[in-house]
Amino acid sequence: MDQREVYCIAHHMRSPLGDGALENYTAAMAGKSGIRLIDDPNFYPTPTVCSKFEDGWENELTLPSSEGLTALEKLCCLSIAQTLKQTPDLDLERTQLFLSTTKGNIGLLNGGKEIPNAVYLDQMGKSISQYFGLKRPCIVVSNACISGVSALLTAKRWIEMEEIDHAIVCGTDLAGKFIASGFHSFLAISDKPCKPYDKTRNGVSLGEGCATMILSKDKKENPVLKRSVKIAGGASSNDANHISGPSRTGQGLALAISKAMKGANLKADELSLISAHGTATSYNDEMESLAFDQLGLSHIPLNSIKGFFGHTLGAAGILESIMALHQVSDKRALPTLGLEEIGVSKDLNVSGESIALANDRFFLKTISGFGGTNAAIIFEIEKK
Amino acid sequence: MKELSHITLSKNEIVKNGETTALPDGTFKEVARHIYDQLGISYPKFFKMDAPSKLAFLTSELLIKESTHSQELAGADVGLLFATKSGCMQSDIKHYESYVDDDNFFPSPAVFVYTLPNIMLGEVCIRHKIQGEATCLMMDKFDEKMVFKYSSDLINRENYRYCIAGWIDVLNDQFSAQLTLFGK
Fold first, then answer.
1. pLDDT at residue A381 tops 80
2. N or C: which end of chain B has fewer CB within 10 A?
C-alpha cells in the first residue's frame, strides 16, 4: 500500500499564558511567562516557582453536559472542542482519541481504601472519549515526559496503517503536590524561574497545560496557519542506561533524531529550528548538547521554551510542537527565556534573545524523559 | 512477523510456550523472590525495583530464557510495548503517603522515581540494552489485537528485529502478566 501522509489539520492549546495557540504565542513573544511564585502549602511546604493556572481555574470551566468529568478532563474536552471547531466535517467514525498524560487525575488520591476510578489513566481517556461520542476506545500513552510526542507518533502510525483516518491527540498534566514533592525530593526544582542551557541552571520549573492536535490523512490547510502542516518523520528510542538520569553520551537522543531525519529524508541544513527539551537540569541540557553536536546540528537555531511554560510533562510534546509551528511559520524563534550565559560543553545556536529563522518550512521537536525515553518529530509546513 | 516465544504469569502458574510450571502461594514480593531465585541470575538492581518493574523484569527474563534470541536483544532495532491497567499505582500510593501529612513529610527519590508507568519498561531496556521504541499504554483490559498490530508494524514496516509486547499488571498482590517475543 502507498504510504499515507499525515497532516496536522487543527490545533489548540491552553496554558496560564492564555487560551488558544495564537494567544499563547503572542504573549510569549511579548516576553510574558506563566511562571510565578506559588506560596501555598497545598502545592508544597515552601514557596516554589511554577507555571500554574490561576486559583479557582477549575470553577471557570464551562462545558455543557459535563457532570461527572473531573476538572482536568473538562480542560481536555474544552481544548478538543476548540480543535474540532476548526474541522467541522471530521468523520468521527474514522477518528480515535489519543491521550498523553503522566499523572492524569492523581490529585484525586485520598488515601481511602478505594482508589477513585478517575485516577486510572485508562478511565480518564474513556471519560473524554465518551464525552465526544467516539466509538473507538481511547489510546492512552503514558511514557513520562515524552508522552506527547509518543502519542503523536502512535496516532501517526495508526493513520498510516489505515486503522483510522483521523486522530485527536491531546496531552495534559497538572502540577500539584504529588509532582512538586517528587521533583523536590530529586533536588530537581529550580529556586527561580528555570534557566535552560545556562551556566547557573539548577533545575526545572514545572508547568500546567493542555494541548491538542488533530492529525489526518487528508491534506487540509491548517486553519490557524493557513498552510498545510505535515508530520514528515519521527522516532523514539531508549537510552537503556538509567531509569531517571539521562545518558551521559546523548546517544539515545541522537538515535531518535537521526531516525526521524532519515524518515523525513531531510538534511540538517534544511531545518529552520530545533525546539529542544531544555528542562534546565544540569544533566539533561548537557546531554542534549552532546546529541546535537554528534549529529552536526550545533549551528541550527535552537531554543527551549520552558522559561515561558514550565515543564508541562504530558502536554509538553504537543504544546511545544504547537508553539514551534507558530515560530517557524513566522520565521522567528522565541528566546530561550532564562538563558544568560551558555553552560553546556558543546556549542549550541541558542540565545536569550529571539532568533530570526532562515526558512519557514521544517522544524525538529526533541524531547527526553524518565525511564530513558527520547523522541524526535519533524514537521513540514507547506511552502507559501 | 513470527511469534518466537510466549509466556503468561498468573497466581500459582507460569505457562511458557505450552508448558506449565507451578508457582507457590504468597505475597507478590514472595512469589517474585521465588522466581528470581529460580532464574539463578545475579541482578542486584532487582531488589530496588517496585512491584511492576519486578513483574516486567521477571516475565521478560522467563520469556527469553534458554532461547537463541536472548543474546540478540541489544540494539536500536528492538522495541518494547507494554500495556497495563494499574501501572505504577502502588508506588503512587506510597509516594502519596509520604507527602500528604505536612507534619510527617518524607518524599524520597527512591520511591518517586517509580511513579511513572513506563519505568518498568526502562528497567527491561537497561537489562537487555534495548534501545528502540519503548512505549507504555494504559488500558482497562489487555487489547491483544491492538498490541499485535503495533508490534507487526514495528517489525514489518520499521524493520525492527524484535519486539517484546504484552501486558504487565500488579496491584496489592494481584498480578497478571503475558508477554510475546515477536521477530521477523
1. yes
2. C
pLDDT score recorded for residue A178: 98
Identify all chain A residues contacting B97, using CB atoms and an 8 Å cutoff.
111
- The answer to whether A123 and A131 are in contact (CB under 8 A) is no
Inspect the interface and report whether the beta carbons of A122 and B150 lie closer than 8 Å: no
Cell of A371: 525511564
Q: Which residues of chain A from 10 to 69 reach within 8 Å of chain B, CB to CB? A: 41, 45
Say yes or no for a CB contact (<8 Å) between A144 and B98.
no
Task: Quickly count: other Cβ atoms within 10 Å of residue A318's Cβ.
Answer: 33
Nearest to A230 by CA among A245, A215, A243: A215
B-chain residues within 8 Å CB-CB of A170? Answer: none
CB contact A117 to B (< 8 Å): no
Read off the pLDDT of residues A301-340 as tens digits, 9 standing for 90 and up.
999 999 999 999 999 999 999 999 999 999 999 999 999 9
Distance from C-alpha of A321 to C-alpha of A62, rounded to nearest angstrom: 27
Whether residues B126 and A371 touch (CB distance < 8 A) is answered with no
Q: Sort out which chain A residues have CB atoms less than 8 A from B150's CB and list them.
A: 154, 157
Distance to chain B for A180, nearest Cα, Å: 10
Q: What is the DSSP string of A187-255?
A: T-B-SSS--TTBTT---B-EE-EEEEEEEESS---BTTTTB-EEEEEEEEEE--S-SSSPPSS-HHHHH
**pLDDT of residue A241 exceeding 70:** yes
The rounded mean pLDDT for chain B is: 97
Residue-level pLDDT at B66: 86
> DSSP character for A134?
-
Pick the residue of B94, B98, B136 with the most A CBs within 10 A to test the interface with A by mutation: B136
Q: A111-114 — which CB contacts under 8 Å span 24+ positions? A: A111/B93, A111/B96, A111/B97, A111/B100
ipTM computed for the complex: 0.98
Instruction: Tell me which H or E stretch contains A167.
Output: strand A166-173
Rg, C-alpha atoms of chain A: 19
Q: How far apart are CA B133 and CA A254, in angstroms?
A: 13
C-alpha to C-alpha distance for A43 and A331, rounded to whole angstroms: 38
CA–CA distance, A301 with A297 (Å, rounded to integer)? 9
Q: From the list B112, B122, B138, which residue is nearest A186 (CB)?
A: B112
CB-based contact B83:B166 (threshold 8 Å): yes
CA angle B120, A318, A148 (to 5 degrees): 10
